[in-house]
Amino acid sequence: MLPCQRELFDIPRDVCFFNAAAWSPLPLAVQEAGRIGVARKGQPWKLEADFMPKQYERARRAAAALIGAEPVDIALIPSVGYGVSTAGKVMNLPRGSRVLVLQDDHTSPVLEWMSRAEEGGFTVEQVKQPGDGDWTSAVLEAMTRTGAAPLSLVSISSVHWSDGGAIDLPRIAEAARGAGAAFLVDATHDAGVRRIDVKALDPDFLIFPTYKWVLGPYGRAFMYVAKRRQNGVPLEQTAPARKGVAAEQKVYFRDLSYADGARRYDMGERDHFITLEMAAVGMEMMARWGNDPILARLSMLTDRLADGLANTGVRVIDRKLRAPHLLCLQFPKGMDDDLAQKLAAEKVYAAPRLGRLRISPHVYNDEQDVDRFVEVFRKVAL
Length: 382
Hints:
It is a single chain. The protein has about 375 residues and is α/β, with parallel strands linked by helices. Helices cover about 35% and strands about 15% of the residues. The strands form four sheets. Strands 2-8-7-6-5-3-4 form a seven-stranded mixed beta sheet, with helices on both faces. The two termini are about 35 Å apart. The mean pLDDT is about 95.
């Protein structure tokens, strides 16, 4: 099990921060990378000619390492929504088909298809939230529903952000292949924590940002693109997406054919070397620690939370069905609207989400944090 890494963060001992699923604190090393980046921008004439290409590839390698990908299959993008919009432009969903999404899933893997459905002639079907928290069974049942329109796409998060229910991605991927459907994964709440191997999983697209679990800044995200999807038209038309468009050449538009690999889908103005390096540092830290040691720590913390909150009247999804790094409390009699504020007044932080309280520890949390949370929760909530 990974030891607590609190000393690598700027978190006072009296602060109990259990809200990594909203935004993670930046490690001190990531903060320093940002300060160095700002100084570089202050004196840009000192940048070496190959500085930016090295930055792109460092970030690409760091993202690829977290999901078992090759760097050539990773695109540099600003957000999950950008990546899903790119997928929407690349894929041609047949008229009369259906797209499967999760009820109340985050907007990114859902709204793109809702906005395209009428014009595209396909329907968007929401898998209803299962009462027992078993999202995997609910999705599989919807995929094979008798009499339903042909399935063209499954576009889902790997962990439901509001209840912490975990999706068995290999089972869904296999079922999607069997149905001849594409598979898009929003791995926002998984990348860097639960093990992901895109070579085995073989999704069409898998996307994640850096500002939550992989300890990075806002505005940086990464998209894995299967090779079968690497011949599409990018969302933006940029010089780096082409093989031979560069200001340094004598002929500006030398070769307009698209670049090979996922690089053609890189965002415009990708020269965000301040935050790009911050993102790389955070992802490299996660990779060094490894999935299994991280999960062992976070599972221990959420199990300790669940045990400590027993007999308080709250309910949680069965351990076998929830993500090991999120614990979402359900309140049969309803959650007080100001519960999160009451906790925050005691320097204890968790997030209200769709009538639940979402508790999301990370590597900087320890047993003392858990015990303090339980103590304060019992004080303000009961």
